Inverse folding.
C-alpha cells in the first residue's frame, strides 16, 4: 500500500562546484535559532561539535554577511544566534521547499501511487 | 561575485523511512535509457556494476511495476531498457525538479545574490 503521508522533499541547492545549501545546513540553522547554541544544535542532530562548528564557518564564509553570530564569555564560551541574514536565508530555503512541494504536488502524488504494496 | 549560472537543485523524494528517489537513481535510469546497459550507465557515473545493479533491484522492488527490463543472452548478458513505467517515473522526477526550479525561482535568485564574492 502506498504510504499514507505525502512524500517529503530533501533539497540541496547547488550554487557552484564548491557551494551548496541543503537540509543539514538548514536544520543546523534552525537548531541554533531554537537552542541558542552551536553545540546543542549539533547534538540534536547527532553531529560532533567540530562538525557543527565547521558547517557554521562554511556558511558564514559562503555568504557575504554571516548567518550565525557568536557571543563570547561564560563558562561554555557563550552562545550563538542567527543574524537577520541567517533568518532570511533559512526562510528562503523553506520557501523553496514549500514551493517545490506545492508546484510538484501532482507529480509527487502520481509517484506515490506507483509504489509497491509493503 | 555571485555565480553567473542559476543554482541547480538536487532533490531527494522521501516516501517513507525506507524508500526514496533522488538524483542517483534518476541519473542511473537516464543512463540506462541512453546506453541500453546497466553496466555502461553505472560506469558513466563512476559506479561499480554491483552498486548499479543493486540500485536497479531496489527501484524495481520499490515500485509496483518494474522500471528496468533486463534482456538475457549474448556475450555480455544482454542489455537493459526502461519500461514505460520507468520512463514515466523518470519524467515525473524531472517534472518535480522543473516545478521546484520554476516556483522557487525568486527565492533562489535572492539566495544567489547573498553569496560572498569569490
Amino acid at each position: 500500500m502506498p504510504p499514507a503521508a505525502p512524500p517529503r522533499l530533501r533539497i540541496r541547492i547547488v550554487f557552484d562546484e564548491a557551494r551548496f545549501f541543503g537540509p543539514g545546513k538548514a536544520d543546523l540553522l534552525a537548531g541554533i535559532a531554537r537552542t541558542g547554541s552551536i553545540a546543542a544544535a549539533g547534538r540534536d542532530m547527532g553531529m560532533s561539535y567540530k562538525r557543527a562548528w565547521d558547517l557554521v564557518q562554511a556558511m558564514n564564509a559562503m555568504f557575504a554577511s554571516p548567518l550565525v553570530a557568536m557571543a563570547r564569555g561564560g563558562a561554555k564560551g557563550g552562545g550563538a544566534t542567527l543574524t537577520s541574514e541567517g533568518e532570511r536565508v533559512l526562510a528562503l530555503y523553506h520557501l523553496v521547499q514549500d514551493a517545490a512541494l506545492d508546484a510538484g504536488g501532482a507529480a509527487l502524488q502520481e509517484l506515490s501511487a506507483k509504489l509497491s504494496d509493503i
Remarks:
- Chain A has a mean pLDDT of 92.
- The radius of gyration of chain A is 17 Å.
- The first strand of chain A starts at residue 8 and ends at 14.
